[in-house]
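Annotators were shown the component list below and the corresponding predicted structure, then asked to write short factual statements about the assembly.
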Amino acid sequence: MSQQFSMTASHAKGKSGDDLIFATSKEANLAAMKFGEENVVNATIGALFTDDKKLAILPTVDRLIRDLPAEEISAYAPIAGLPEFLDAAINLALGEDKPEAFIRAVATPGGSGSIRHTIWNYSEMGDKVLTSDWFWGPYKTIANENLRDIAIYKFFDEKDGFNLQDFEEKVNGLLKKQDSIVILLNSPAHNPTGFSLSDQEWSSVTEVLKKASASGEKRIILFVDVAYIDYAGTFAESRRFMKYFGNLSRNMLVVVAFSMSKGYTSYGLRSGAMIGISSSSEIAREFFETNQFSNRGVWSNGTRSAMRVLGDIYGNGDIRAKVEAEREELRKMLGNRASIFMEEARRSGLKICPYKAGFFISVPVENAMETWESLKKENIFAVPLKMGLRFAVCSIPTRQIGMIPEKVVKAMK
Amino acid sequence: MSQQFSMTASHAKGKSGDDLIFATSKEANLAAMKFGEENVVNATIGALFTDDKKLAILPTVDRLIRDLPAEEISAYAPIAGLPEFLDAAINLALGEDKPEAFIRAVATPGGSGSIRHTIWNYSEMGDKVLTSDWFWGPYKTIANENLRDIAIYKFFDEKDGFNLQDFEEKVNGLLKKQDSIVILLNSPAHNPTGFSLSDQEWSSVTEVLKKASASGEKRIILFVDVAYIDYAGTFAESRRFMKYFGNLSRNMLVVVAFSMSKGYTSYGLRSGAMIGISSSSEIAREFFETNQFSNRGVWSNGTRSAMRVLGDIYGNGDIRAKVEAEREELRKMLGNRASIFMEEARRSGLKICPYKAGFFISVPVENAMETWESLKKENIFAVPLKMGLRFAVCSIPTRQIGMIPEKVVKAMK
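Structure shown to annotators:
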């Protein structure tokens, strides 16, 4: 038997991606045509939708994009990003409790580009990148594309808090084998569970990493994915933990990934930034140079119009207040949906992951694929994960939320 | 002496990029403030500018973007790109002489993203990627970022035609050491020289590669960068060479890189596509799956608004005719500038690279850096290359073109 002929390089063989989320969404649409829209719950779509099933868009952001001078849409942005954008991204991501540190930023396409550069530039080829057992699938895709793999720690302890013990064990375990570690941590409003680390938990996480970096022999890179931060409480509160990233040793680098996708409903414009935080000005400079080079070496520059709009929002208090007021409406809608889900889960005795905020609620299920199939027969279309099922409360109309938990309980039987 | 402390992985050390083009442009702007705009030639900027020194923008494209429904700007595009966009990109890039082959496309941020995926997925780690001795600098940056290096062949023969002999030698030389070869060929309207291969030269290039692939043992990947194709003659003529990419053996893959940056003056929107052409449906499918996976593993998806606009242009004959008429005006302006440059070069006895079309004219200079410095003193700001100087006729006002060649001759002395 001859092996299948392939044109790709040896390390790039066999790539494929059945997009289960997309396929499930398609099934939901077919079901809606057959049984009527109101009788089908499509819980797959990871973007905010109104109760009218329309993509929720911040009107002020939309207007700002349309009103840009033609050059601000058409022209190239600088490779590292527009300076006003980078300044806005740093301030909007880190908030009022900025860490005492040197801080530099480089524009990337959404948060995904930041993950790629961080893994590529800061972990060794073939090394393991650490993330939680509940994780956003593309973390693994991005690691694999770049010839790394994912290692996991248990995200929750028995009290539904952050599992500090397993985190510490896995960090130290990997550091016995590796000279460096890249840790991908998505908080607040974690995808897929909606969990947020508390202030105390953030403090403990940084203490663990300080200990691990104390000898100075290992390089520790903490990547903090804050894609959903604007739906996780007030501006100041949701960013309070940033203060822990100051005064770290020089062999510890924090990278905060800012994205315009959710917070500015600009998913399709592909605009974000990676923000490097270091107590060494040299390491901050290296961060900028390294990732600027990687921009040129991968996708060149970013979407200028989106960058300009963020600069305009940050630079004008009135506009910023408008954007925040519009977003607050969406946050309330989302919070209300999540409350209904949690309330009905309690009533039905359905155990869910500890949700604090954000787009998704997840349910731990042992045989996720089986339950997923059963639920589809009930016209509820969720996303199956290794550890359970994900429900996109961001896109399910409020009126459809309440009935979900009981049906999940039934399907699990 | 201790080595400088670094946080990056071992393969990512020492990245930096003094952007000489940007720095030179800044120098030109300072000189303009000092000596007056009309007395300073900024020949560095690689985008089309009008004689009023404004970025040239196709008004119909600009209007289409502004008139899009909000969802078409805000929503994510599919990972591989909008189907209508991919269809438009294939048809607009390959034209009327489409090769007899299986053809699949994947959206990428401009042409740069296509180069990254092609190098990453189709050349072995550490292998050499082949391009011409006159080449666009970022080819090397992209190769280096992805742990490959560039090998070069002489682009021109003694008659200022394509140097088929050196091309063949270097292809066969590399194939003695490598199991596969990725060749980056930018034509028509090559950056930095403005050269275009003739129909006969394209025929010869594919014959050389057919011979090299004949044994079936080696994998040959020809990457054709057509970033400037819309400024290189009529739609049909400029794409005539695509016919040579049909009926190749299955171990030869052609990738055509389409970009909206120049042809649709959409530089800042980061929209392009890589188009895979193979006589094997399996290899075409592998091309799609591999590069779709790489999209997810690097930048996720592309700019939806730009994709939608291209689909709209291709789908409506009237709109397409308008865009083409607007672009034709720009092409004439560009052609006129190039003619003046060539005419004055002849008059001054300045030998230039064989220019056929496009944004740039290059002058072979042995001590490029010295001549570049001398020219700066004359208030002419060019881009220094290893082999000479590049003049961006795309962005120099027509009235300033004529005086350049004579000054270059003087500076070379």
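Statements collected:
1. The first helix of chain B runs from residue 20 to 35.
2. Residues 78-315 of chain B form a domain with the Aspartate Aminotransferase; domain 2 fold (CATH 3.40.640.10).
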